[in-house]
Amino acid sequence: MPSFIFRLGVLCVLVSLFSLRIAQSDREQVRDIRANEPREDLVASLSGSSVSPEVQRLCAAIALGHLPRGEASKELREQFVGSGVAHILAVSGFHLGVVVFFISLFLRCLSFLHFNPRWRSMLLLLAAWGFVALSGWAVPTVRAAVMLSLFLIARMLIRPVSTTNILAASALIQLLLAPHLLQSAGFALSYVAVLSIHLFYRPIYRLVGEVRQPILGYVWSMLALTLAAQVLVLPLCLYYFGQVSWAFVWTSLPVGLVAVVLIPIALLLYTLGYLGLPLLGLEVAAEYLGQMMLYITEHGAQIDWLHQHYRPELWHLLLYWFVAIAWAVWIRRDEAPLVVVPV
Can you give the pTM of this predicted structure? Predict the structure, then answer.
């Protein structure tokens, strides 16, 4: 009987003369405690480096999902929220995508080893789930890892890939394993963001026609990706939190580009520091990029007139979504299916 109760996650049974109450554990809290141990060791490995405390705090948040409670962490969080880039501070599918992208590049550099494509996919999956575990099993990263797993499995089995099916299957798997996620804002925001990108990226990207210059094309694709995600996410943020910052229009692109470089550098720093190896001057690059990101978010958060406070009714949100999705489906009715990278 005790083992059965323990497996259910029950921490204690409180017995009184009038009632019997069974307090179930908060599984997320227990999981966070276990995940924090290796993260704290990694964070401590940079304590003696030349990286400033504020940049160390930033790197721990965006690379490890480690942002402990405290006044400094609260100010950092408010700064990112005020500048409209809170999604960069919280580890999500974006961060997992960056990690998988750089590992994929590394494996390509080892092409002389003639990796079997299936082995390459397995290595990417191991890296993805390793990062998910290291960063604390955050809902958005689990979503991205499940989608990536389904995507790579379909590729290995030479099966057609459907973003819609992968998105739906990923949501179903997460809800079957953790039904309480249905009430989680992070769960809703994560899946709505991917759906929004799937529906609106192409129409927005094509607004300026064909961009032949590679660098400009990449920058525009990043901006179009950000705008596409916000079409459905922005009203949902208003519904959940009652406020948004329109500063994201100016801050998302530069902060996102800096994060793409800073995340792998921070992970390399933590790895080298933990192993006691020389940091190879990477702390200088991390300090420069971290200060740049903090500068952008600090000034973006100070533009008060870009902060909007409004909480729509549920039926307002659903009506807007219906109109927006119907419009997207209509303008894309003759297009070939778009496969969104599942991160």
Answer: 0.84
